[in-house]
Amino acid sequence: MFGRRETVCSNGYEGVRRMAHRTESAVEARRNFRLGMRVAFYLLAFSALAVLGLLGFGRLEQHLIQSSRFIVAGPADYGEQSPNLKVRGIKNTSRDAVNAVFQGDFGRSLYLFPAAERRRNLLVIPWVREARVMRVWPNSVRADIVERVPVAFVAVPGAAGQPSRFAMIDGDGVLLQASGARFHLPVVVGMPLGAGIEARRDRIHRVQRLLKEFGPLVDRVSEIDAGEPDNLKVSVEMDRRAMVLELGNQHYALRFNGFLNYYPKIRDRLPNATAFDLRLEDRITAVGGSSSVQ
Q1: Percent of the chain with pLDDT over 70
Q2: DSSP per-residue codes, 250-280
Q3: Which DSSP letter does residue 71 get?
Q4: C-beta separation of 247 from 210 below 8 A
Q5: Which of 46, 104, 109, 237 has the greatest CB tally within 10 Å of its CB?
Q6: Global confidence as pTM
Q7: What would the CATH number be for the domain defined by 150-293?
């Protein structure tokens, strides 16, 4: 008898538990349905906004491309120089070379202007060391240029039967054609003009170190020979005679000052010598002979 009651109670509890489970499942199903509808709504709204955005962007892009307000006017519209191209920082760089870089952009929309590419084009011009190119809305372009600084003159061999000409070289080893400006620079010979720029850069760095050490004494130097990287030579005038001094690869000013201090003794002992090796710290040796001054 008691066992039967327990069975009935157990079955009743099980039924209640099942009903509660079905109720929870129904609630969960409705919650999932509402969530799904909400997600679907958001996706639909996002898709609609994306389509509208693309359409709007397309119309805006067409406006930027076709509107005359954004056209970069070229020199032909205003004479030789376009007011829509503003170039700053040039002194020795050819303005015609700069204008040629932007020639294809005149008459086109500023929206289509390839600023990064034009910067690379400017860097090809020898005198241009660095450049920044930017759009200036609605219809102008600005180029800020940093020019190279020449540090010496170098002799460039001419063609067959033609004399050599002088060019300039900067601290990076880049050769620069003469401009209208006047430069007071030393003359460097022995520069490997036919070699890669790395070789020229190494030689000119050595020359620059010599010039820095010499300071005001560089005014006494008429020519620097960089033919041997580890043995720079300078040509100076002493008593109206040209002399060549071998300075090695260090202590340039110290060795030159030593020569100047001992020059009266050198002139008395070696009156006909015109080339000297100053690389030994305790003596000055006449090149081509065994005579030396200690």
Answers
A1: 80
A2: S-HHHHHHHHHHHHHHHHHH-TT--EEE--S
A3: B
A4: yes
A5: 109
A6: 0.72
A7: 3.40.50
